[in-house]
Amino acid sequence: MSDTDDGTRIGCGAGFWGDRPDAAGQLLEGGGLDYLALEYLAEVTMGLLDRLRRSDRDGYATDFVRFVVEDSLEMALAEDVTIVTNAGGLDPAACAAAVREEAAAQNLDVEIATVTGDDLTARLDEIHDRTRGGLCHLDTDEPYDTVREDVVVAAAYLGAFPVAEAIETGADVVITGRVVDPALVLGPLIAEHGWEREQYDRLAAGIVAGHLIECGTQVTGGNLSKGWREVDFANMGYPIAEVDSTGTITVTKPPDTGGTVSVATVSEQLVYEIGDPSAYLTPDVSADFTTPTLEATDRNAVTVSGVRGTQPPDQYKVSVHYRAGYKLAGNLLYSAPNALEKAKQGADILEERIQELDLSVADTRVEFIGHDAAHGPAASDKTDHNEVMLRFAARGTDRDALRRLGMEFAPLSLTGPPSVAGLTDQGRPRPKPIVDAWPTLVPRDAVDPEVTLYE
Fold first, then answer.
1. Of 5, 316, 384, 436, which has the fewest beta carbons less than 10 angstroms from its beta carbon?
2. Contact status, residue 11 vs residue 238, Cβ threshold 8 Å
């Protein structure tokens, strides 16, 4: 526990798989933490992990072991900081084994607990068959049968109470599979403050705290829309949420680090990727993101209070991932004069070649980077660009057709408009498999979280 009131200090040292590898060390050295949370799993990551697992590679976020455990586990144990992470991905047990192996190599004694039960892949057909009306797409109502034969992995978003149970075993490291991202923060708060299942306001505060720091430095100045010129990005401070037993949150960062914590940075993260702001749904609580009050209480410290919540939904969200054919993308850089016109003609040539060669391509997408790739229809009418990059992408179920299309990019250097360079990064673009996401809901009794302790 923290020495500051009854506040529990939780730092987030990873907002995604690929975040800065030294972030955990920064927080452990200067954060005065009780817990270190590490978030690795975007929806697309689950499909990637399945592909790795099917190729006899690790089905968990290997950066966790490679960087955090190798470089910072000894410090975390010495500082009595509990590590909580969803790095387990599709194989928390294998991740735990890797942590134990690395700890043994460093002569460290470590207790590890895993949270599993999220993987519904083998049971999804059975759950569909016994669910009234069957499973359907969360947003479109598309029936499950449209993807049934192509499903590769299905993971339920577990809540925070199994995470709290794992912490209460006394584990030094808690490794989960798929959980809602804020559960990595709410779980420790439940364990520390003894919050109960019907204390919805406090649970909602824990969800808000978790949401605020789950994206790492996005709450400490990264991606800041207004005032970004004043942010020191070179040594960004990773975020800390200190939360007391009443649910009052203070967001801050380690001293002598870059970035900034302000009402602006906290406000932008608060509304990031939340859907209905009055009902942010999790397995533990429906949090109302319109209720918090934000106040700058110190330099690089913002206090968030007044969060309200109501009872959670009676279903779990499940992210189903399925094989959706193949994709291909290539880049061609055209320079002035008339760069945009040249790039547009290059795209037209590729479209015409698809027709001439009678290639089975489901659809294509064209972007003119430097002109409209980010702004789309809102792009300006400016045409006097120094250079424009044509990004031409296609997808379909016929891999050979896409492979043949990939052979059409390089010839444009001699069969298309002048002043072209950057003929893709790796020669001919090649088709890659698509694993797409298909969200759905399942009854709560279909999911059975399980905690396992490895001593």
1. 384
2. yes
